[in-house]
Amino acid sequence: MSTPQPPVQHSEFDHRMAVFGSDDEWIAAALPFLEEGLAAPQEPPPTVIAAPAKLDLLRDALGADAKAMTFIPHTDWYAGSAANAVSQSAGYLAAHAGPGGRIHLLMEPDWSGRAGRSARETAEWIRYESLANLLFAPFRTTALCAYDTRTAGSAIVDAARRAHPDTPVYEAPARLAGELDALPLPPPPPGADLLETPTPEAVRAWAVARGLAPAEAGLFAAAVAEAAPGPLADGALLWGDAPACVCELRTAARVDDPLAGFVPPATAELEPGQGLWFTRQVCAYVDIRDRGEGSAIRIQYA
Questions:
Q1: Could you tell me which of 142, 168, 166 has the C-alpha nearest to residue 18?
Q2: 286 - beta bridge partners?
Q3: HSE-up (13 A, CA, CB side) for residue 239
Q4: I need a surface site. Which of 31, 51, 81, 300 has the fewest CB within 10 A?
Q5: Is the peptide bond preceding residue 7 cis, with omega within 30 degrees of 0?
Q6: 264-274 pLDDT, tens per residue?
Q7: 226 vs 240: CA distance, rounded Å
């Protein structure tokens, strides 16, 4: 598929937000959006990604119109990291959208699952919502992100409003992502191991010794090798036990693009040679921090 090339001057991506707190409010928010999609020219029928119980409610409310639509449980769509969701969305548009990415997507993140399991994970998903405005800017996709206050608390809803252009508190993605990237990370533990020459073989051997299965250790080592955009300043620090093996790289070059590692490559297959994209697809967390003379890139496998 073609690689998105954000940012552009005039976004085609229509990114909306709906907040509700009951089943009746869910139907009231969803039906007009789906009817709009059914009437849109040059578009396939809408796709709904939501909790299974909400999909059942919509099928009943839509009646015969439901047969034309695609319904996907959000536990299937949002099964991995936020970076995985970018890949999922890009692939879906390539395979199912109309010309220029035309399709209506009604999307409910799984806040009772991975997305809401910790403050750190929630921040990653808010980042995804914000960066979607840049990543999918060239596409004529219309997305309505559904936030159920029964599963997404007020703090999540307030943060998500800042990521959606149809709210009065919307923040530019670079600013919101910059805030998240400015939050300090815990310092490496005193017992962290220093690899002055972190070759894939050395990182893999370290990860196996910490309990990762050989295949997973190989993926982790490849992710570490792909992460740095240039020469390292002082090797790599490694700590933690399987599955939460962590590596921190300090680079001489600064990584100051908020989209670093989020833009899908031209090839759809996940393979080494794709830089930070590969790293983000393989690992649960990739944190980048400015350290003045360069950047610190912290990678956690799971």
A1: 166
A2: 299
A3: 11
A4: 31
A5: yes
A6: 887 667 777 78
A7: 20
Could you tell me which residue, 119 or 28, shows the higher pLDDT? 28
Domains of the chain and any CATH numbers: 14-182 (3.40.50), 193-300 (3.30.565)
Question: How far is Cα of residue 26 from the mean position of the Cα atoms in its chain?
Answer: 24
Other CB atoms within 10 Å distance of the CB of residue 216: 19
Q: In what order do the strands lie in the sheet with 141-148?
A: 14-20, 141-148, 103-107, 47-50, 70-73
Residue 229 clears pLDDT 50, i.e. is over it:
yes
Which residue is it, tokens 């409910």? 108
Backbone angles phi, psi at 241, to 5 degrees: -120, 160
Counting residues of the chain whose pLDDT is more than 90, the rounded percentage is: 72
CA gap 205, 212 in Å, rounded:
10
Task: Give the three-class secondary structure for 96.
Answer: helix
Could you give the CA distance from residue 46 to residue 177 in angstroms, rounded to a whole number?
Answer: 29
Question: Residue 281, SS3?
Answer: helix
The tokens of 31 are what? 């039906």
* CB distance 252 to 221 below 8 Å: no
Residue 268 has a pLDDT of 64
